[in-house]
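Annex B, item 7. Sequence and structure tokens for protein A, then protein B.
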Amino acid sequence: WGWDVLMFHTTITNTIVQDGSLAFMDTGFHQARGYPRNVHLLAAWNGFFLGNTALDDAPQLPFGLIGMLVSAAWARRFGASRSLATGLGAAWLCFSPVFLQLPSVHVDVACAALLGTGAYLSAFSLEKRDRWASAMAFGLYLGTKHTGSFHLALYAPVLVGRALWELKGSTTRGALFLDQVGSAALLLLLGGHKYLQNALVMGNPAWPFKMTVPIFGALPGENDASSQYGGPPGGRAAFFGIPGELERFVDQLRHWDKAVY
């Protein structure tokens, strides 16, 4: 995983530390300029706090623990015993894509942990506490990687349905609605700052990806999002919009030991 960290993720962290600023980066590497960076900010904080880069590759370590715990929680939710759930949580941490990437300023371990946490806390409970915690998890994920916006859009019907169901069973709907707005604002506060900066500076919240939005039309960008995620140039970025992608995905599940990504 080192090449991606060295050319991309470390560039973001080091630039934040060197400039002492969260301003739009003055660099020719478009991905470093436009990508969300919550995990990179944790790495930068380690650098500011210690005055060196000894722990700039440590920000994902707590997310490894979170991912292990939420994996065990999912297992318990579907009927696994405590011992089996504990083993499954530990197994998640031992998967090679996780433990190889964990001691780095990469972001995918954190994304997986935050997505699983946000879904778990919102899928099974109508408690306000769980809604706020779910909003925090989804907000951190949204502000960590562009794929957070895709997954949040796909999961949005569940969140909307949960909100409506929560309102239906309340006797103080006005106060509860304001509380729901507050948790949604927390999600946007934690996850939307880089998208807002991209929109203000480059005219596209998803920059450097080119995108077409109804009413607004084509928004500027440097990269074709479809080709970035394995599709043909000029195609759709959506997973199931890429010709043959579903069949390839199923084939990889059948032959997981030989899958190449």
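Protein B:
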Amino acid sequence: HAYLYRPNTHDHIWFQNLSEPTTSDYFEKAKNAHLGYELAKDTERAFGGHEIKTNDELFRMLGVKEDENPIVFILAHIPNDYPNALGASDLYSDYHDWLIRTLEIIETIDSVTWIVKEHPSMVNYGFHFEYFDELEARFANRNVHFLRHSENFSTKSLQHLASAVITCKGSAGFEIPALYGIPTIYWTGASYSSFKVGTEISSWNEFESLVNSFNQFTLRDLPLDTREAKSCYIFVYLQSRLDLDLNPPSTQADLLNNE
């Protein structure tokens, strides 16, 4: 188990003064711990599975016709997982509300292929296929597709497929830029906001204007600071963790199973 705190000014100064070789060394140590599945079961659920390396393979798995649009992944959260515990927001009431509003905005934007990815630990929080079934029935169209965790899709696939990734406050907001150099869009109040990794959203109007501008050219110009992303990754998966046996399990299912 581990405890994560938010960075302060001294943390940022320390990272800014690290040399590139030292940053790389720390990053590799953090990556080995994270992707070695030493820190949380959620990581293996997310990054395990089959790594898809081509758009053709992705579309065949989804059972839809391939198109030439750039692909943007929307990473769904677990709807009943404390959405405001890491920074209260009046932009949405919970993660379900955030996802619905996001889908209502992007569903008519046909310059992008949108892939809505189910959270890998959804079922461990009491949510089953019906939840995504309802979302898919309401929002799926030729540009919006839903990817279930049961498809055995590895998050490692994003490095081959994604032009950008959208999350509310999920760790993918810094993980994906750090690991794969892919820009992310995330909402204000994320625990890693102070690292200035990518595009932080502070209003729905700002988000709507941004995604409506997306095409194969504008997506290349999204803010992306891989040095900041790697510093955040090091902070989260190496520098800010302590062994504490008193910490709660990583999911409700772990608690119920007394793991």
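Comment on protein B: The two ends are 11 Å apart (CA to CA).
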